[in-house]
């Protein structure tokens, strides 16, 4: 008994209905046929890139961290006060050697008072009031400046042991000036650098 093969569309439908009886060539042909659905990528795989460069630039609004010691940082009062006190103490120590405006005014006032009080006094009294008293007044003012410098600078050195090096250097320099100024003022007060001028005694003539 002979069997005939069917050609045409009906044969394709019969081949598709064969199911498991289809050969590997038939499966490959169906996969390459147009209109078929694309194969899905297995889970976990990264999507394909389109080849466009990605923007890796950092955002412009990123704030940079502020470094310590910037211009907006407040000043440290613990470092400002010792520095200012050291400068003031050094100025007082220098004034104890060179003199001050206050000492000059007080000395001139004392000299004027001496001239008024000794207008009819002896020469020794005039020398004491016009020369000696202003001299001692200047020494007293300079000595007060020296003592104030020693007190201020001594407090700076004792309290500011952890202060900046320049603060301690200024304090030591001012302390040396204060000690020297105190010694000069004491020598002037006690007439160690020169005594008061004296007037020679007038010889008394004896009547003959």
Topology record:
Elements: H1 9-16, H2 24-32, H3 77-98, H4 101-117, H5 123-159, H6 165-189
Helix pairs in contact: 3-5, 3-6, 4-5, 5-6
Low-pLDDT segments, ≥5 res: 11-16, 68-73
Name the overall outline.
elongated
Report the order of strands and helices: HHHHHH
Sheet having the most strands: none
Question: Helix coverage percent of residues?
Answer: 55-70%
Instruction: Please give the alpha-carbon distance between the first and last residues.
Output: 205 Å
What portion of residues belong to β-strands? under 5%
Radius of gyration: 55 Å
- Determine the mean pLDDT: 75
Which structural category fits the helices and strands? mainly alpha
Give the beta-strand count: 0
The number of helical runs is 6
What does this entry look like structurally?
With about 210 residues, the chain is mostly helical. The protein contains six helices and no strands. It has helices at about 10-15, 25-30, 75-100, 100-115, 125-160, 165-190. Helix 3 (about 75-100) runs antiparallel to helix 5 (about 125-160) and helix 5 (about 125-160) packs antiparallel against helix 6. The longest helix has about 35 residues, at about 125-160. The termini are far apart. The model is unreliable at about 10-15 and about 70-75 (pLDDT under 50).
């Amino acid at each position: 008994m002979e069997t005939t093969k069917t050609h045409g569309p009906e044969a394709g439908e019969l081949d598709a209905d064969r199911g498991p009886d289809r050969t590997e060539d038939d499966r490959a042909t169906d996969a390459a046929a147009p209109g078929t659905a694309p194969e899905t990528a297995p889970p976990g795989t990264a999507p394909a890139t389109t080849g466009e460069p990605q923007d890796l630039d950092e955002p412009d609004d990123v704030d940079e961290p502020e470094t310590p010691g910037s211009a907006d940082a407040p000043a440290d009062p613990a470092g400002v006060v010792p520095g200012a006190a050291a400068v003031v103490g050094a100025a007082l120590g220098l004034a104890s050697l060179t003199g001050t405006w206050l000492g000059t005014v007080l000395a001139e006032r004392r000299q004027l008072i001496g001239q008024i009080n000794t207008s009819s006094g002896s020469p020794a009294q005039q020398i004491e009031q016009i020369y000696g008293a202003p001299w001692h007044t200047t020494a007293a003012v300079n000595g007060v400046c020296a003592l104030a410098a020693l007190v201020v600078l001594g407090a700076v050195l004792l309290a500011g042991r952890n202060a900046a090096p320049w603060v301690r250097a200024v304090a030591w320099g001012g302390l040396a000036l204060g000690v020297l100024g105190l010694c000069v003022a004491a020598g002037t007060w006690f007439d160690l650098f020169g005594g008061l001028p004296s007037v020679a005694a007038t010889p008394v003539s004896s009547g003959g």
